[in-house]
Amino acid sequence: MSHHANVAGPSTAKIIAAEFLGTFVLVFGGCGTAVLAGKEVGFAGVAAAFGLTVVVMAYAVGHISGGHFNPAVTLGAAAGGRIAWKDTPVYIGTQVVAGIVAGAVLLVVASGTDGFDAVKSGFASNGYDDRSPLGYSLAACLLVEVLLTAIFLWVILGATDSRAPKGFAPLAIGLSLTLIHLISIPVTNTSVNPARSIGVGLFAGGDAIGQLWLFILAPVIGGLIAGFSYAVLLGSDETVPLADAMEA
């Protein structure tokens, strides 16, 4: 991931720091809004919170790591030729760890009020069937997560394309995540991000953990579909690493 033709890219340590910070803020900010303020702000407020986390952190650290904050984004970026496949394990490992740390910190904060129960409250975890907010079936939840993750990646790859308006990618990406949440909070509580799902799911009890597979598998499939198809559908011969596009 070189920054410019003759300049070495950011070190692995900086990439890890950027992805850790970004993913932590996404999970703590988005899921934190749902857990701590969900009754006050409602679905739309939670959707806005997730979008805002991506806007602010993509502007803050996107020029260092590309601002993925999501294993499905990393895999989609690799499939789309924006980062090397060999770089993906560092990104994904960092994102999952950051998500879990954010979930743990959120649990400490949420437990500061009497009677809080992460299992009973659901702890902003994702689910299908009886764990879907409005009881949507496994099939519906699988479809919506694959489709919306693919849409998310098409937006990311398009907004960071060399032909796109410069400097606006974080805004487009954050707004698209808000839109995705407005559509699918009632269906799955919205994952489109395995790190976000794992980060809180591990603290939400056995039923939540038992359903995590869908919120790992579906976003990965959606991300790969978009990554592999972007060049065919919309791409040019020019592709720019995500970090360079964020910096432009």
From TrEMBL:
It is found in: Membrane. Coiled coil: none annotated. GO terms for molecular function: channel activity. It is a multi-pass membrane protein. The chain crosses the membrane at residues 12-35, 41-61, 90-113, 133-156, 168-188, 208-233. Keywords: Membrane, Transmembrane, Transmembrane helix, Transport. SUPFAM superfamilies: Aquaporin-like (SSF81338). It holds the Pfam family MIP. One of its GO terms (cellular component) is membrane. InterPro entries: Aquaporin-like, Aquaporin_transptr, MIP, MIP_CS. Belongs to the MIP/aquaporin (TC 1.A.8) family. This is Aquaporin Z.
